[in-house]
Amino acid sequence: MRLRKVKDADLKLKENKKYFIENPADYKGKWKNIFNNDNPIHIEIGCGKGKFILELAKENPNINYIAIEKYDSVLLRVSEKLNDLEYDNLKITILDASLIKNYFGEKEIERIYLNFSDPWPKSHHAKRRLTSKLFLAQYKYILKDNGEIHQKTDNRGLFEYSIESFSEAGFKLSNVSLNLHKDLEKYPFNITTEFEEKWKEKGPIYRLEARK
């Protein structure tokens, strides 16, 4: 999908001083100071327009959330939604997940969400997948002991690849679903993304949890 560049998106994000973290590397190992509490921290890598993370933050005020995006034009849409909302447990920031170890300290994060990440289907692009061994090594560093990764995708190839990658990296898999929206009795608190709402009637959504 082509990304539409929004003029001055970076400047507009900086105006949102309540939610936008301009220099995330400054808070490595100190994110609890941003929230002024010791509550668990969950992050979503690739938050899109923000439906998922906004609903999570609303439903779970005792958990701190950080929404991560690589592109400022995408994150701006989340920022615009936040202008009319009041959250004490949500921050948004721009960073490249391939360098995530530079932004979070060892065992600082309790859960990571990977929702409908780019599948990078060509084999020579495998290292770019968010569940490649290069990424998983960094996730293991920032995740607490028994920390979790929750993944949803509509791409069967990426799902099978992820299962193999998680297993090879020593993660324990659970709650694996080959058709999430036919298994919703097992996941009564499933929160959908914008993409998921559009896709759920067209094909299966795959889901898993991987524990460090």
Keywords:
212 residues; alpha/beta; eight-stranded mixed sheet
State Rg: 17 Å
Whole-number average pLDDT?
94
User: In order across it, which strands form the biggest sheet?
Assistant: 1-4-3-2-5-6-8-7
Count, helices: 7
Give the proportion of residues in helices: 25-40%
Roughly how many Å apart are the termini?
Answer: 32 Å
Main sheet record? 8 strands, mixed
Helix- and strand-based class? alpha/beta
How much beta, percentage-wise?
Answer: 15-25%
Which stretches are low in confidence, meaning pLDDT under 50 for 5 or more residues running?
none
The sequence of SSEs as H and E is HEHEHEHEEHEHEHE
Shape: globular
Count of beta strands: 8
How would you describe what is shown here?
This protein has 7 helices and 8 strands, in the order αβαβαβαββαβαβαβ. The protein is of the alpha/beta class and 212 residues long.
Spell out the blueprint of helices and strands:
Layout: H1 9-14, E1 20-21, H2 31-35, E2 41-45, H3 51-59, E3 64-69, H4 72-82, E4 90-94, E5 109-115, H5 133-142, E6 143-153, H6 156-168, E7 172-177, H7 194-199, E8 206-211
Q: What's this model, at a glance?
A:
The protein has 212 residues and is an alpha/beta fold. The protein has helices spanning 9-14, 31-35, 51-59, 72-82, 133-142, 156-168, 194-199, and strands at 20-21, 41-45, 64-69, 90-94, 109-115, 143-153, 172-177, 206-211.
